[in-house]
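note to self: dont lose this again. the chain is below, predicted strucutre after it. 135 aa total, dont forget to put it in the shared folder this time
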Amino acid sequence: MTVDTRTRLTPTWTPRVTVALIVLAAAAFVYVTAEIVPVGALAAIAADFRVSEALVGTLLASYALVAALERTGLTEKAVYVAKATMREQRIVRDVREVRSERGDCFAMVIVTRKERSGVLAGDVSPEAMLAKVEA
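---
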């Protein structure tokens, strides 16, 4: 087996590649740190606002959920339903409205794959649906 040493490969690791990787690593570090810092500061945030850590955690989680829906383009297909089938039922078709609200223990976010129909599309008011159930 012979090796041809006459042709030299050009080096692919250049100073430009090194700088690009350093910038990419720094940007990734800053991005991840900015996303994780609020979780680490949960107790301090709760103490400063004199609320429970659970409430601050719920606010952070609801913000993160809406942000994830926005990044994936599913905001238009998501519906927030609080206290479903109860007299105080609340349906919000724009989930961005509930980004900074206090979460409800009987709440859910429904994301559909196709077009909505019925109550989720706004065809029937929740009050009308409750009236049918009670009758």
